[in-house]
Request: fold
Amino acid sequence: MSNDLSELLKELQIQNPDELFKDIPESIRTSLLGLPRGMDEDEVRRLAGEYAGMNKTVNQQHSFLGFGLYNHYVPAAISNIINRNEFLTSYTPYQAEISQGIMQALFEYQSMIGELLDMDAVNSSMYDVSTSLGEAARMAKSITGKDVFIVPKHMSRNKRAVLDNYAKGADIKIKEVEFDERGMIDLTSLEKMVDDNTSGVYAEYPNMFGIIDTNVPKIKGIIGDERIFVAGVNPISLGVLAPPGKFGADIAIGEGQVLGLGLNFGGPVVGVFGTKEEFIRKMPGKIMGMTKDHNGKMAFSMILQTREQHIRRERAVTNMTSNQALMAVAAAVYLSLLGDSGLRKIGEVNMGRTRELMDVVREFGPFLPYESSPVFNEFLIRLNESKTYVNRIAKKYNLNPGYVLGKEYGFTDRNQVNIITNVTERNTNDDFNAYREFLREVA
Amino acid sequence: MYHQATFDEPIVIDIKGRRTLKIPHENEGYKAQVPEEMRRETIGIGDREEFSVIRHFVKLSEMNFGADTGFYPLGSCTMKYNPKINDEIASLDGFRMIHPLQDSSEVQGALKLMYELSELLKKITGMDEITLQPLAGAGGEFTGLSIVRAYFECKKELDTRREVVVPDSAHGSNPASSHMAGFDVVQVPSTSDGTVDIEKFKEAVTERTAAFMITNPNTLGIFEDKIVEMADYAHSKGALLYYDGANLNGIMTKTTPAKMGFDIVHLNLHKTFSTPHGGGGPGAGPVGVVEKLKDFLPYPLVTFDGEKYSNDYIPPKTIGKVASFYGNFGVLVRAWTYIKMMGEEGLRDACENAVLNSNYMRKKIQEFMPVPGKTIKKHEFVASSVGSGMPKAGDIAKHLIDNGVHAPTIYFPLIVPEALMIEPTESATKEEMDLFIETVRQSLKVSHEMFEKEPVNLKVTRIDDVDASKNPKPTLRMVRKEQKEALQQII
Ligand SMILES: Cc1ncc(COP(=O)(O)O)c(C=O)c1O
Reply:
């Protein structure tokens, strides 16, 4: 608190700061809200330590839980950089000259994501992948003037629920395309669905089942130039998987959490969003651009602000104001540390380790419904046991085998459990052994 | 005298070296085995040592200005001090290393914290239920307005209630969010005292109105004292009242949105509740509602049965979801820490000091520059550099940053010409405020030619933003593409 209160009061010729609240009518003044008394640092540190201690972390168990948020290793260098006070406590760089540091860092994020996606235009962050998808559907409508957006029937319900909200407000109708027997987009159905009202199609690789959908490269050819192809990718897979730009994607989105952000109970994360150069003026979000200052020196500017709410108001491309900038900086640090060789390596380890665990599953029975489809770092395992039983055995081995798909995904058979198991570079051989023991008992 | 650190740092992609960061299992011979058509060939971001990465980003950070660097009176953004204990607590393993899809029995501590934060925010706003899911203020607005839509859809009035009414002083995200939720926007003018024109308001609010959306104190820092009359009138027309909580710091503990008659509230935890702004985010935009709107909140909500916490409650008429998981949890932890440490006394002090500082600055600035609207301001005020010999707001801003003082928000709200929106917050000493005032006063004497040359003490001087947008280069690959094209033209 400022210690020169009395001088300020004197200057304003008042006795008490409360006099500055006279303009609030008496009838709506509050006396006491009933909040608890304030704590000191030591007290709050202890209390928080107690709460934190009530949680069982992924490090305290054998965890194969992924499904949209992944337990990748977070290098120590990242928290060091994003806790730099000059980054941490600054805000949106509306005063460019005094904020070149964060603007360059965000430009670097955009540039590296641009390489990963093979896309020319990238924004400096969306809230998360779900809102990226919602914005992509709006953008597809705004580019084409059409209002039917096609998505895969099998995708995370969380993502879908957010998309539905965005679609409702923008009068967009969502239609679902089926998967084929290999767990990939059914191209014959897609071809039949696409018509004059279609604004665009969304497809993922890896998809909800972890499958590297080899039908994705054919989508743009089917829907043509007049419709928007939105590709959903896992950014950490792009060291080994071809980029969406190669398959003609008009927009590419993904969850940037995998790029060194950690779990944090689901947030903060960062929505990745890129597009082709020709659509940059329709892209939502803040964008840093490279330019020069009046002396010809390299500089960065927040470009295309006329798309945004503070200028365009209700006609803005999005309402977004604050974003997830610091998380984009974290992702930039992560990508810088890994580089080309590290990205390739981490992709190889994730894929190789996942195949290794699938081989373990094969030892015990035919539990892999999409056995022959290639996967990145997640796979579907189907056990012919009740969920309660499976949970009990998993607990016995201090194991979380993954995310159990329930009736919201169409799995209603009570004598069957469908689990999405995720393997990352953090899973140890001990984790694998626990999984094996678990299978030995349930299989 | 302020001199910003200046380095000519290359783009990190161009810093070449050898990767030193090791990846688990990296030497165990794992292979990718990708189907041919989907195999990656080159990537294009290069390799480098960890020490090069650190040196690079440390230098970039030194060319940046945060609220920990100096006074940062950016209006509407509440750049108060962010206590360091907040960050320490958010980085505890028990909070950092938990997955949102774990069974609720394994994350009781996280759910307890979220539940407590909701209860605290309910007390502060007077609302009956809270969702912590929205990821920023604008995300909260979209959530709230989606609730408005669902409510009228349920009442079968959505066909006729197509409009959201906002004051002309409203933040741009208000009309933008209204539009995104499917509403038309109707703007009401303000009077010369800086508050909503009540007659025009009554003309604008009709049976077509779904909601009236306003922040109070408004964006001029003025308390809308006819708020109760406006609330009653809007309610009498069947409309809902939406409170944009960006400016809560100016009234916290003195009144509540509920007392003023609001039905829906969003808060900006990154403003009022001291979570760091992170160069633009992450923030958090919890939304509170009154009883009759509870059933429309996004799912899931944290509940407590007296013994254990659950996070699987789905409100019966839920609008669905507005984020992948439960919100920016790391930000929620920081806000919880702040409120726990402040208590009611601390929050009252924060509000009073913010308002005291703001009025002190207003009084001093007023000596040489018009400050439109009623005299008494809340946590911020807007000066207007119009009149003979007055420099442009943009020039004053550059003069300030050149002197190591962050500029106020400029050219907002739109209804004030050459607006300088100044919000000192409670985290400012008299010396800092005096320096700001002095620097603004000096700027009145700076000639046009001198302004052209400023800033000189920063990494770069003025930037041609218009050209940067005419010729957008958002990635290094676009820069290189253009250089190549230029080269070919020469040849
Ligand atoms: C008055 C007002 N309303 C809403 C917002 C939007 O909040 P956010 O940036 O958290 O999305 C802001 C801030 O940017 C604001 O100042």
